[in-house]
Specification:
The structure holds two protein chains of two kinds. Chain A is mainly alpha-helical. Chain A has 14 helices and two strands; from the N terminus they run αααααααββααααααα. In chain A, strand 1 and strand 2 form a beta hairpin. Chain B starts with 6 loop residues before the first strand and ends with a helix. Chain B is built from 18 helices and 20 strands. In chain B, helix 3 packs parallel to helix 5, helix 4 crosses helix 5 and helix 14 packs across helix 15. Chain B is of the alpha/beta class. Helix content of chain B is 36%, strand content 24%. Classes of the chains: A mainly alpha, B alpha/beta. At the A-B interface, helix 9 and helix 10 of A face helix 3 of B.
Chain lengths: 325, 505
C-alpha cells in the first residue's frame, strides 16, 4: 500500500511496463545504439522540464521557456559568429544568463501585478520570439558557419563503442550534464529552505506569506531558474544538432509540460519531484522514439503527445481531488 | 499578583474609513489563562486579534506585553513575544507532510538556509509528545481530518514558543468527541503555562472551557468577568443587546377536521425511513429531532421529490403528492432549504435577485424572455420582508453574512408560493441575533400566510422554543411527540439520550 502511494514508484512501474511492451513489439528498441540515442534525446527536453517542474510546484505554468531558449541560443550563436569567437564556457554562461533575465521579467510581472502565469508567459513568449526575429535575424546558422567549439561540445561522448560493421556510436556526454543538474535541482528542492518555499507557495500562497516566507524571492528563484535552464538547454540543443534556427522549438512547450505532468507534478501546485519528472521525460521521449521506429508518421506524434497530456492531467487531478477528501 | 499580565490592551480604538471597528477597548490576559472573546459577526473580534498579532496598528491606546509598552507592534515582534494566532482556515500547507508543516515556521524564524530533516523530525515528535497526541509525521496534511489539521496548527504554534495562542472559531468543523480532545489539549497547554484566547460564539463551549469571558458588541466591550458570573442567557443578552425570546411558539387554533397542509401515512423511504405518519396543519411549526442518520433528511428529501424509492401516501392540501422531480414538488407547493446552503442552496457568485428568482423560473420567464420588471419588484418585496441587510438586490450572495444568506434561501422559496416549508438546520452557522430574526420571520409567515413548517434541527433549544410540536425520530421511525408544556429542551434531551444509551449498550 505504502509502495503504491508513492507516485514516483507508480511512474517507474509504468515506464518499465512500457519498455517491456515496446521491446516485444520492436526488438530493435533494446539495441544499445537506440538506447544511447534515446538518452541523448532526453537531455534538452529534460533540462527544460526541470524548469517547468519548479514552476508547476509553485502552482504556476510556463509556456514562454521555449521562446527564451530560442532567444538565448540564437543571440549567443549569432554573436559568436559575428565576433568569430570560439569558446564554450562564456557562451553557455551568457545563454544561461539571458534565460535567467527573461525569467526575471516573468517573475516580476506575475508577482507585482498578481497576474495569471499562463497569460503572462503566453505574452512574454510572443514578445520575445517576435523581438528575436525582428531585431536579430531570421536566417539559420548552418553547420558550416557554426562555431567549431560548440559542435565539439555536442559531439563529445563519454562512451564510444564500435558496431560489427566498424562504424562507431557513443553515449553523449551531455547526459552527464543533465544528470548533474537534475541532482542539483533535487537537492535544492528537498534540502534547502528556498526549495521548500516553492512547495509551500504552491500549496497555499497566503499561508506561505503568513509563516514568513519571502514569496517574492521564491517567485524570482522559480522563474529565473526555469529561464536559466531553458537558455542553457537552448544552446546545448543547437550545439547537438549543429544548427541555430530562430524558429526552433515551436510546439515543444506541450511536450515538456506533458512530460512534467506525466511525472506526477500537480497542475494545482505543491506536488512534484525531480525523479518523477526525469521518468516522465523518459517515457515521453521513448514513446516518440518508438513511434518513429515503428514507422508511424511524425504528424501522429502530436496526437499521441496531446492525448498523453490530457490523460496525465486527468489522472493527477483525480489523485489530487481524492487527497482532498 | 507578582507578575504583570501577559498582555494588556488599554483603550484601543481603530477606525476603517468611517466605520469604528473598535472603540476604547481594554482587555487583559494573564499567564496560563483561558479567556473567551465572544461577539457577533462584525463586533470587532477579528480586528482585535489583528491588533494583538501586529497586523493592524491601533489608532489610539496602548498594548503592554509583560508590563512593557509595545509601540509599533508588527507581526514579527508579536510572534517574537510569543503571540500565535490560529486562524479559522489554519494556514497549513495541505500537500506537505505533517512534519514539515510543524518545523517550517521554526526554521524560518532561525533563518536557516538548509533544511535539516532529522532535526525537524525530532522537534515535531517532541512537540506532539508534549501535546500527548499521536499523528503520522509522514502523512500529508490534506489526508488528515479537520481535527488532525487543527492539532497540527496548535503544535506549530507551540513549537514557535507561543505564550498566548489565539484560536479563531476553533470548534466549527469538529465533532463532539473532537471538541473534547481539543479541550483536553487546551488544558494541557494551560498546565504548561500557555494562555489561550478562544474566539467563539458557541455558548456551551465558552462556558465549559474558559475561565474568563469578554463580550464585544459593535466595537465596544459590553461585558467581562469570570465565567462563573455568566450563563447562556446573560451571554446572549450581552452579545445581542436584547433578551432573546425563549418562550414557546403557539400555533393558531385550527379545526381538527380541516384538510392538513401535509399528510403522511405509512411513508417509507428505501430502507432508511419506515412507516412514518404525521399531519401538519396550516400555521404550524413542527420540529423533527433525532440523531444524525435517523432518517430525518431522507424523509425531507422524499417529500421534496429527491428520492424515488418512496412508498405510502403523501398529500399536500388534500391532493396526492408523488413528486417524480423537484419541479413537481415545487409545483405542489413544497419548499426545501437544505442543510448545506452553500453547496446545495445558493449560487454564490450570482446576485440576490438571480438567486431569488431561480426557484420559480417559470413565473419570471414564462416563455423565452425574463420578465425583469416582475423579477425586480418581487425580489424587492422579498428583500424587505426578510429584512436582508445588504446594499441592494444586485450584490453577489457571497458577500453576505451567513444569516443574510439564509434569509435569501428562505425568501426565495416564499416567492414560489410555497405552502409547506421544510427547513433542514435553518440556523447552522448563523449568529445569535440573526437566528432570532430568522425565527421570528418564520413564525410570521406561518401565522400570516398559513404556511406549514417542518423544521429539522440538532439544536434542541431551537426546536423547543420555536415549534408548537416536535417529533423525535430514531432509526427511520417516529418515536415520540412533544407539545404544549411537555415540550421542553430537557424532555427532548432525555428522549434522545435514551437512544444514545441503547446504541452504546
Amino acid at each position: 500500500m505504502k509502495l503504491f502511494s508513492n507516485t514516483d514508484v507508480v511512474i517507474a512501474l509504468i515506464l518499465v511496463a512500457a519498455m517491456v511492451f515496446i521491446g516485444l513489439i520492436n526488438p530493435a528498441f533494446w539495441q544499445l545504439p537506440n538506447i544511447f540515442s534515446l538518452l541523448k534525446s532526453n537531455v534538452v527536453i529534460g533540462l527544460m522540464a526541470l524548469g517547468v517542474l519548479l514552476i508547476m510546484i509553485s502552482g504556476g505554468i510556463d509556456v514562454s521557456f521555449t521562446a527564451f531558449a530560442v532567444a538565448a541560443m540564437y543571440l549567443v550563436v549569432r554573436t559568436m559568429v559575428a565576433l568569430d569567437f570560439d569558446g564554450v564556457i562564456i557562451p553557455f554562461l551568457c545563454a544561461t544568463a539571458i534565460g535567467a533575465l527573461l525569467g526575471l521579467m516573468n517573475a516580476g510581472i506575475i508577482h507585482k501585478f498578481h497576474m495569471i502565469p499562463l497569460i503572462v508567459t503566453l505574452g512574454t513568449a510572443s514578445v520575445v520570439r517576435g523581438l528575436v526575429l525582428g531585431l536579430v535575424g531570421t536566417s539559420n546558422v548552418n553547420i558550416n558557419q557554426m562555431p567549431e567549439a560548440l559542435i565539439e561540445v555536442g559531439r563529445a561522448n563519454i562512451v564510444t563503442l564500435e558496431r560489427a560493421n566498424g562504424t562507431t556510436f557513443g553515449l553523449s556526454a551531455m547526459i552527464v550534464v543533465y544528470i548533474v543538474i537534475a541532482i542539483s535541482i533535487h537537492l535544492i528542492l528537498t534540502r534547502t529552505m528556498i526549495g521548500r518555499s516553492v512547495y509551500a507557495y504552491g500549496a497555499d500562497p497566503e499561508a506561505a506569506k503568513r509563516v514568513g516566507f519571502k514569496t517574492g524571492r521564491t517567485m524570482i528563484f522559480v522563474y529565473c531558474t526555469a529561464g536559466a535552464l531553458a537558455g542553457f538547454a537552448g544552446l546545448l540543443h543547437s550545439s547537438m544538432i549543429w544548427l541555430a534556427n530562430p524558429r526552433d522549438f515551436v510546439g515543444l512547450e506541450l511536450d515538456v509540460i506533458a512530460a512534467v505532468v506525466l511525472g506526477g507534478a500537480s497542475i494545482f501546485g505543491g506536488r512534484g519531484t525531480v525523479m518523477g519528472t526525469v521518468l516522465g521525460v523518459f517515457i515521453l521521449v521513448m514513446i516518440q522514439n518508438s513511434l518513429i521506429l515503428m514507422g508511424i508518421d511524425t504528424t501522429w506524434q502530436r496526437v499521441v503527445v496531446g492525448g498523453m497530456l490530457i490523460c496525465a492531467v486527468a489522472v493527477t487531478a483525480l489523485r489530487d481531488r481524492r487527497a482532498l477528501v | 499578583m507578582a507578575f504583570p499580565p501577559l498582555i494588556e490592551l488599554r483603550g484601543i480604538s481603530k477606525r476603517f474609513g468611517g466605520v469604528r471597528a473598535l472603540d476604547n477597548v481594554s482587555m487583559t490576559i494573564d499567564r496560563a489563562q483561558i479567556r473567551c472573546l465572544a461577539g457577533e459577526n462584525g463586533s470587532g473580534k477579528s480586528t482585535l486579534i489583528k491588533i494583538m498579532s501586529g497586523v493592524y496598528q491601533p489608532d489610539a491606546g496602548e498594548i503592554l506585553i509583560d508590563g512593557k509598552a509595545m509601540d509599533q507592534l508588527d507581526p514579527a515582534i508579536s510572534i517574537g513575544q510569543g503571540v500565535q494566532v490560529i486562524y479559522q482556515d489554519l494556514s497549513l500547507f495541505p500537500t506537505l507532510k505533517v512534519v514539515e508543516n510543524l518545523f517550517l515556521n521554526t526554521f524560518l524564524r532561525e533563518r536557516q538556509k538548509i533544511v535539516n530533516w532529522r532535526r525537524g523530525r525530532e522537534m515535531a515528535r517532541e512537540v506532539l509528545d508534549r501535546l500527548d497526541v499521536d499523528l503520522d509525521l509522514d502523512a500529508t496534511v490534506e489526508t488528515l481530518p479537520a481535527a488532525g489539521r487543527q492539532i497540527v496548527a496548535i503544535a506549530r504554534a507551540v513549537l514557535a514558543e507561543a505564550r498566548l495562542i489565539i484560536m479563531d472559531e476553533p470548534t466549527t468543523a469538529l465533532t463532539g468527541r473532537e471538541v473534547a480532545r481539543l479541550f483536553r489539549i487546551v488544558r494541557d497547554l494551560q498546565q504548561q503555562g500557555i494562555a489561550i484566547l478562544f474566539v467563539s460564539h458557541k455558548m456551551r463551549e465558552m462556558l465549559e472551557i474558559s475561565e474568563a469571558l469578554t463580550v464585544f458588541r459593535n466595537g465596544r466591550k459590553v461585558a467581562e468577568g469570570p465565567i462563573g458570573e455568566f450563563d447562556e442567557r446573560a451571554i446572549t443578552r450581552a452579545m445581542t443587546g436584547r433578551d432573546l425570546n425563549t418562550g414557546h411558539f403557539t400555533a393558531p387554533a385550527f379545526d381538527p377536521q380541516a384538510t392538513p397542509r401535509l399528510l403522511l401515512e405509512g411513508v417509507s423511504v428505501g430502507d432508511s425511513v419506515h412507516d412514518v405518519s404525521l399531519r401538519l396543519m396550516p400555521g404550524e411549526v413542527v420540529g423533527l429531532s433525532g440523531l444524525i442518520g435517523a432518517g430525518r433528511t431522507r424523509l425531507a428529501k422524499a417529500i421534496f421529490g429527491l428520492r424515488q424509492d418512496v412508498t405510502g401516501r403523501m398529500e399536500v392540501d388534500g391532493r396526492p403528492l408523488a413528486p417524480a422531480s423537484v419541479s413537481d414538488a415545487i409545483r405542489a407547493g413544497v419548499a426545501y432549504v437544505p442543510e448545506d446552503r452553500l453547496s446545495e442552496g445558493l449560487f454564490l457568485n450570482r446576485s440576490i435577485r438571480d438567486n431569488a428568482i431561480s426557484a420559480a423560473m417559470d413565473r419570471y420567464a414564462p416563455r423565452l424572455w425574463l420578465n425583469h420588471m416582475r423579477a425586480r419588484s418581487e425580489t424587492g418585496k422579498m428583500f424587505r420582508d426578510m429584512q436582508i441587510a445588504a446594499p441592494g438586490t444586485e450584490v453577489p450572495v457571497s458577500t453576505l453574512s451567513g444569516g443574510n444568506q439564509q434569509r435569501v434561501v428562505i425568501g426565495r422559496w416564499l416567492m414560489t408560493d410555497a405552502r409547506l416549508l421544510i427547513l433542514n438546520g435553518p440556523t447552522v452557522g448563523v449568529d445569535v441575533g440573526s437566528k432570532e430574526q430568522i425565527h421570528s420571520i418564520i413564525h410570521g409567515l406561518a401565522h400570516d400566510k398559513g404556511l406549514a413548517v417542518l423544521m429539522i434541527s440538532d439544536d434542541l433549544p431551537e426546536l423547543a422554543a420555536n415549534c408548537n410540536r416536535v417529533f423525535t425520530m430514531e432509526d427511520g421511525r417516529l418515536t415520540g411527540e412533544f407539545s404544549g408544556d411537555a415540550l421542553t429542551e430537557e424532555a427532548l434531551e432525555t428522549a434522545l439520550a435514551s437512544v444514545t444509551r441503547k446504541e452504546t449498550a
